[in-house]
Write a structure and sequence with these properties.
There is one protein chain. The chain has 216 residues and is α/β, with parallel strands linked by helices. Helices cover 34% and strands 20% of the residues. It has helices spanning 16-25, 48-58, 76-82, 97-107, 151-165, 183-188, 198-201, 206-215; strands at residues 3-6, 30-36, 62-68, 86-90, 110-115, 133-137, 171-175, 193-196. α3 (76-82) links the parallel β3 (62-68) and β4. The model has no long low-confidence stretch (mean pLDDT 98). The chain binds D-xylitol-5-phosphate and zinc ion.
């Protein structure tokens, strides 16, 4: 069964706590928080205070923070204190990626690396043992509701192969354009965690959407 991580980017922010509670009640496993700074990506979303508001509602569910920000090292501690369980930084935003991953793990959080659509999976070759999660972006980060970039599927297969060959327990997450009707393509390519924003929060029947993603 896939781990389903609805992205609150597509939630109603005026009712955020109800929205988080709703998707968890309907079977979601993780809560995915998309942090954007208007520099690494063109859009701006929210920072640690919103994660801090979400964390108590999430309860035991994993709070999965995807940092689409430059110089993420400056904010790792703030996000951890706010309640992030997984902190994912972008390989493209980290000059010293290995150091950033160590910093995340030293805080006691799980460390993730996200790859933009153009970034080759080989950037992970020398850090794969130092991380807990790889996030393959299947759209250019910045906005919800975009359609899948096909090459992400090939990249998922490559990363899956590297993780399995080395016998690691790294989770493979995919983010962008994931919907109930195409989810199986991602799990077949090796994804363990499916992030879905508009595919869950925008669904008429959220419970059915989450169930379909899980069963993919
Ligand atoms: C994109 C974000 C995604 C986004 C996914 O920059 O990282 O998490 O919310 O949205 P959908 O599922 O609508 O493509
Ligand atoms: Zn995301």
């Amino acid at each position: 069964m896939a781990i389903v991580a609805p992205s609150i980017l597509s939630a109603d922010f005026a009712r955020l706590s109800d929205e988080v509670g709703d998707v968890l009640e309907k079977g979601a496993d993780w809560i995915h928080c998309d942090v954007m700074d208007g520099r690494f990506v063109p859009n701006i979303t929210f920072g640690p205070p919103v994660v801090q508001a979400v964390a108590p509602v999430a309860g035991d569910a994993t709070v999965d923070c995807h940092l689409m920000i430059v110089e993420p090292d400056r904010y790792l501690e703030d996000f951890h204190k706010a309640g992030a369980d997984v902190i994912t930084v972008h390989a493209e935003a980290c000059v010293h990626l290995h150091r950033s991953l160590q910093a995340i793990r030293n805080l006691g959080a799980r460390a993730g690396v996200a790859l933009n659509p153009h970034t080759p999976p080989e950037v992970l070759d020398y850090v794969l043992e130092d991380l807990d999660l790889v996030l393959v972006m299947s759209v250019n980060p910045g906005f919800g509701g975009q359609s899948l970039i096909e090459s992400a599927l090939r990249k998922l297969e490559v990363v899956r192969g590297s993780v399995d060959r080395r016998g690691l327990s790294v989770l493979l997450e995919v983010d962008g354009g994931v919907k109930p009707d195409n989810a199986r393509r991602f799990t077949s390519a090796g994804a363990d965690v499916l992030v879905s924003g508009s595919g869950v929060f925008g669904a008429q029947d959220r419970a059915a959407a989450i169930a379909a993603l899980k069963d993919a």
